Structures are given as structure tokens and as C-alpha cells.
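Example record

One chain of 363 residues, shown exactly as stored in the release files.
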Amino acid sequence: MRHRIADIATALGARLEGDGAIEVLRAAEAGQAGPEDLALAMSPKYAETLAGGQARVAVLWEGADWRALGLEAAIFVPRPRLAMAGITRALDEGPGIALGLHPSASVDPSASIGPGASIGPFVAIGPGTEIGPGARIAAHASVGAGARVGAEALIHAGVRIGHAVRIGDRFIAQAGAVIGSDGFSFVTEEMSGVEEIRRTLGHREEITEQGWHRIHSLGTVEIGDDVEVGANTAIDRGTIRATRIGRGTKLDNLVHVGHNVEIGEDCLLCGQVGIAGSAKIGNRVVLAGQCGVNDNIFVGDDVIAGGGTKIFTNASAGRVLLGYPAVKMETHLEIQKALRRLPRLAAAVAGLQKAVSKGDRTD
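Predicted C-alpha cells for this chain:
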């Protein structure tokens, strides 16, 4: 599909110079852009590469001399990353799911499919399910009985949405995500070793053989509008009440959200984050890759945790955390500096011990 440069500039709310009637097929990096590409060169470091290439049009940094770069038109943006959001949105044609119901799809007669929805090959939609207007569901996805998927949702291939799950509008789920799997809840007849260790912080009286009894998940999952879920992410349903994810929150690939967890609005959870059952996450929280959150604690609004941080206790609003266990980022940096000094400190102490031992023998 061809796109006029003038239309792209309008969509971005950006300034255009040159021939706005030029059409492009796709976006490309500066060094790979051809005559039918929109070159992305939003920093002066791309100037030499762009000038030596074949691009006719480009997205440039403010103040660039587009004519000197051999271009016929240019779009100027003050904030490159924000411009990337608009450009990719304008050029994204999606997974190409045909409008309507594919003949191989299995849709229960009691399900409600909204106008303009696209249901791909081998999709399974259970009884009493509601699919909103304009929703797109790719091949081999399934939506369980009584679930609701909002308007303009995009469900990629192989996504599993469990029974009674409630999902808002403009939801995006990448391939292989599972929403509404049972929570990981088990109990022993007598106090288990895990419960004892939690109480004693390490001491065990007697080790006995014990089996695990399943606690079934009677709750569901409730997801707000404009939420995105990454590939192979798993969101467990609640035990009694619902697991909840607030409006605008984005989950990366391989994130695990345990049963009864509540996540606020506009949070960002990066790859391999794990949140244990009944934890509560505030609004606008950012958890970098491989962060872990203990069960039954809360993380306040606007907390930012660096990669690999393990949060074992409540975190106050606005804190910036790092480390295992989590501490304030500045404290963690001081700890790391001190650790690097330990070999020299140990050598100094050993020298002092040796000197004191010699002194004792002299006496």
C-alpha cells in the first residue's frame, strides 16, 4: 500500500518541506532506504549515510538541510521516539485477517460477533461469548465461554482467552499469550514446610511427607481499555475475586501475572517480569526485565525498578529501586562500590593481622 508523504506528515502533526505528493511503500533505516522508502534519519549521525543512499524522502532532525542531503522532501520531527510511534502506526497494515468469518472457524450459535469483526482460520469461540465491533482474531486463537473481548481488539495467532474473562476495547495480545489460566494455588493438610519457613525464617522442626490439594480458581481476569499483552505471557485468573489489569498498561513477552494480582493504569512490565499472587501494583509503575514482585505486597504509584530487581517488601510511591533485594537505586550503587573495595579491604586486614601476630611473638 502506498502512502503520500503529506498524509504521513499530517498524521504526525509534523512540518513538511518539499514535494508532499511523493508516495512511499514502507519505512527503512537510512542506510537501506531506496526510492520508494521513507528513510528514518532523525539524528545528525545519519547524515553521511543518507547523502550516499538512494532515498528521495526522509524523516529528519530539526535544522537538517534536506536539499544538501539530496532529498526531494522531508518531514521534521522534534521528538524522534514519539514520531516513530506515529510513523509505525500509519504504515502498519496488520496481520491481514480477512473481514468476516472464515469457513473453518468454530463459533457457537449463542456467541455475539460485532459488526466489522474478522475471525480467522480455525478460531474457536465458545458459547455466550461477546466479540466487539471491528475486532480481529487470527488463526488458531480461542475465546472461552462467556468471555468478552472489546471493540477493535487484535488477537494474534494462538492466543488463549479463558472462560468469563472480561477485556476492554483496543486490546492487543501477541501470539501465544494465555489469559485466564488457573492460578497456582495448593495447600497441604497440615502446615507445609513453606509455611513453616515463612514463620521461622529458616528453622524446621520436623520434615514429613505431605501431598498438595488444589485450590480451584473461581475468579476471572478483568482487563481495561488499551492494554497490550506480549507473546507467551500468562495471566492467571483469581481464586475468588478477579485478577485485574488497568487501562493503558503494557506487558512485554514472557510476563507472568499471578492469581488475584491487581495492576494499575499505564504500567510498563518488561520481559520476564513475574508478579506473585495477590500483589498490588499502583499506577504508572515500570518494572524492567526480569523484575520479581513477592506475593501479598504492594508497589506504589510511579515506582521504577531496574532490571533484575527483586521486590520482597512494600515499595513506597515514587521510589526508584534496584538490586536483590530491592533498595533505593543510589543505595544499590553505593553497595556495589563497597563490594568492589572488599578485596583491597581483605588484603589490608590480612596485613594488619600478620603485623599484629609478629608483634605478639616479639614480646
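Notes: The radius of gyration is 28 Å.
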